[in-house]
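sry for the spam today, last one i promise. struct tokens for design, 507 residues
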């Protein structure tokens, strides 16, 4: 009988986990600062006294909003150290401390999980090392986001109330003033420049010329531009008044500041500070601005070239200028000052003549130029489609959405979720599922497919058309997306289907 020797099992030593902690408070109030200090002390002591963990560092953001991760330097440092492989596990008090923006919170957790790093949320008892907890994390994170948005709405209500009763104090300081003790005070040196700008303008000097004079005098470090002068001429603060809510924040995350074009109420408060400009002078300047904005030197009627001519030198769009019966197009930066861009004005008739030449060339040779191009792109498209990995990604996405819907249903049946939230969330998931299924059915490269359709359309246009002897704005609009001015003698027409052709300008 064979002799059997038993080899005893070895006891596995506990793996040391490199652990860090993250803490955050959203204001500088004393209660919040006490909470902040308590979080730091708690995690520092916890990790330093643990035998199976190595305390890496304490990451803590103080008095910073949690709606955007980009505004939290310590959070960014934490993520950077995780990417460098310095951390295995992250501890934090709650999801609301980790982030109040659902997409960013989930994005960070998923990135850490992909790096093999787990996050433990103590209050909710959620450990991302467990795969099944991601759906629960999304739910709690959504609650935290709603809490943050509620706080934001309350803050806005307070701001609007102060605007309505005239007690709101704007922090913006226009050129010519200093902000001292919460009030605008006239800066004598800068105010003299503001007065000079208004004097020049009402005497008939244009904004570009005013900017050039100020740049020559070097009255400040920044460059004076046409837009800078216009902002001064239209700013009511120079007559001692204040228009509130020129901009407003969007209602959804991520919050963005946008110009108020009538979407929100505005509040005009008179006599908020000492004026620099007399109201009669300000009104004269505003009246002159309104007159100059009317179609006169600058043509305002719609042109087929409008917003389609781009400067190949500086990237600016061209604008149309009409003097007597001659229409020219000029680079906006060159129009401000020739030093900004060297490409000079081009007559509209030269663009028209170049298009006529292009049209007739393509009409005569489209079978030799466009048809082979279409065949090559079709062949490339078929090869890309055969090796497309998008199908697998779409199937995976559909499976994940269905799993989330199942989890939501289970949680709702257990009474964990609010009914209204369950309905809203499942409707959102249903929409995502429908979109993904449509994409899967199509299983096409939409961008490439659209380009092929446009090329077929372009060939069809020339099949049914003849050569032309003069500019036709309808034909131009059918095939041209953009004109790029390469030089004063050469332009490129970018056509539908993503193809471009250069033409010389006969000057």
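last one done:
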């Amino acid at each position: 009988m064979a002799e059997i020797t038993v080899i005893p099992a070895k006891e596995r030593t506990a793996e040391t986990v490199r652990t860090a902690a993250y803490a955050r408070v959203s204001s500088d109030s004393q209660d919040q600062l006490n909470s902040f200090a308590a979080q730091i002390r708690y995690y520092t002591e916890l990790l330093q006294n643990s035998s199976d963990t190595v305390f890496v560092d304490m990451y803590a953001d103080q008095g910073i909003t949690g709606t955007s991760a980009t505004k939290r330097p310590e959070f960014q440092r934490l993520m950077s150290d995780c990417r460098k492989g310095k951390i295995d596990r992250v501890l934090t008090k709650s999801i609301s401390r980790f982030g109040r923006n659902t997409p960013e919170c989930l994005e960070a957790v998923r990135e850490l999980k992909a790096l093999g790093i787990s996050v433990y949320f103590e209050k909710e008892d959620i450990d991302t090392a467990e795969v099944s907890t991601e759906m629960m994390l999304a739910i709690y994170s959504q609650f935290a986001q709603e809490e943050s948005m509620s706080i934001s709405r309350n803050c806005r209500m307070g701001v609007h109330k102060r605007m309505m009763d005239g007690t709101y104090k704007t922090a913006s300081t226009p050129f010519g003033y200093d902000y001292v003790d919460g009030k605008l005070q006239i800066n004598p040196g800068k105010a003299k420049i503001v007065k000079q700008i208004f004097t020049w303008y009402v005497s008939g000097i244009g904004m570009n010329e005013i900017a050039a004079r100020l740049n020559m005098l070097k009255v400040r470090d920044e460059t004076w531009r046409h837009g800078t002068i216009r902002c001064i001429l239209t700013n009511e603060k120079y007559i001692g008044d204040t228009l509130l809510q020129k901009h407003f924040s969007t209602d959804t995350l991520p919050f963005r500041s946008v110009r108020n074009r009538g979407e929100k109420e505005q509040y005009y408060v008179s006599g908020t500070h000492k004026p620099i400009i007399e109201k009669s002078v300000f009104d004269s300047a505003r009246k002159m601005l309104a007159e100059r904005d009317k179609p006169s030197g600058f043509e305002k009627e719609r042109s087929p070239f409008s917003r389609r001519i781009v400067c190949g030198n500086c990237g600016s769009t061209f604008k149309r200028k009409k003097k007597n019966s001659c229409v020219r197009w000029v680079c906006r930066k060159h129009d401000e000052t020739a030093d900004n861009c060297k490409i000079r004005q081009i007559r509209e008739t030269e663009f028209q003549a170049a298009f006529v030449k292009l049209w007739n060339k393509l009409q005569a040779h489209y079978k030799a130029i466009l048809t082979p191009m279409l065949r090559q792109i079709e062949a490339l498209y078929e090869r890309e489609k055969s090796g497309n990995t998008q199908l697998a990604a779409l199937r995976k996405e559909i499976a994940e959405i269905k799993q989330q819907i199942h989890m939501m249903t289970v949680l709702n049946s257990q009474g964990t979720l609010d009914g209204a939230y369950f309905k809203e969330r499942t409707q959102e998931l249903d929409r995502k599922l429908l979109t993904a299924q449509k994409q899967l059915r199509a299983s096409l490269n939409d961008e490439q497919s659209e380009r092929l359709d446009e090329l077929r359309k372009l060939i069809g246009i020339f099949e049914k058309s003849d050569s032309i002897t003069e500019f036709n704005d309808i034909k131009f609009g059918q095939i041209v997306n953009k004109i790029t001015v390469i030089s004063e003698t050469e332009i490129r027409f970018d056509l539908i289907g993503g193809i471009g052709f250069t033409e010389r300008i006969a000057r």
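Residues 348-386 form the longest helix (39 residues). ok im logging off now
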